[in-house]
Predict the structure of Glycosyl hydrolase.
Amino acid sequence: MTNPRHRPGPRFGVNYTPSKGWFHHWLDFDLDAVRADLDSVAALGLDHVRVFPLWPLFQPNRALIRPRALDQLGRLVDAAGERGLDVAVDGLQGHLSSFDFLPAWTRTWHRRNLFTDPEVLDGQTTYLRTLAASLADRPHFLGMTVGNEIDQFSGDPHPDPDRITPAEADAWLRRMLAACEDGAPGRLHLHATYDAAWYLDDHPFTPAHAARLGAATAVHSWVFNGTAQRYGSASFEVGQHAAYLIELSKAWAQDPRRPVWLQEVGAPAPHVPTDRAAAFTRTTVAAALDCPDLWGITWWCSHDVDRSLADFPQLEYGLGLLTNDRRVKPAGRALAAAVAEARASADPPATRSTALVVDLPDDAPERAACGPGGRYFDAFMRLAADGARPAVVLADRAADPAHLAARGITELVAPGDLVPAART
């Protein structure tokens, strides 16, 4: 399955946060405001947006998917296409910027497990299939993401999780992805987790799920996860975090050429101070572009959250490439310049021939060693700082010559092979 609107080289886009009303704009949909937002996005030289229908507004009852909401989404996709922007659509929203958006038919008096209840599953699959089918004939529709970081509903630290096993997570993902494919065959359908899938011990959504199910692997890179706090906002580790996640994901992929989509990355203040946002953007994009098989980079986010809206975490208000009144910020100028430079170069990244060996099983119940402060995280960063451009390979694959050859790996390094670096 490939991108239906393939362009040479990696794609560059943005997660679309409407400048008026944030994602509540679906309640007062204003196509002229959307067009103005998309004009400001296109002016940065980007080629796609990722958009977020709010699930409770589109499917307020399990038996009701609102035709007017589908029509509004279609008009947004058409408006984007008129500006040369392709559109990826998320389905089960789900979780956004610290807020949960779940339909009433899954909560309180109707409390049912989001991942295992038969009626909820029927409602979800019908919704995803319908959403995808409503867009299937639009040439600028890229495909569906099942939902935004919906794995956060499955365990800690969520305050009211729907507990499941890895096997149940696998079954749920396969069914949701099949519904997307039924609705819009051949498009770029995938799922997206937050970094608990890579870093949190015993999380039911595993690295293997992320790297093997769907048409591409999505990684979401946020340095407020302990990376900036532990190593410092101007550290090498902060600048390389996105590249690390891209390469870490490949360790679990069965296809050595599986595309990886850096689907979310942003400069969250104060973890990345405002006066360093442009430098962080340049460094992060350059590091990600040095990773083979990168499908694209989609920055979070397009426009700042209007400060008249209450109760967001402070870091959420200033993540935009553009202000709430559509003025380009330093990070936006830095991304636009990086995009222009990348498109002017026809050289793909070189193969990463040195691989860090990660001794974890497929289901990786103990994966904190991959996170900030973990032995694999620190070993990767040490190799990268020394200029090795490391890949990552699982220990059981390190003994497979065919796998290593397919990835161009000629040197294997274990954390124990490295002399600890002195920190100042």
Observations:
- The longest strand covers residues 260-265.
- The first helix runs from residue 31 to 42.
- The two ends are 48 Å apart (CA to CA).
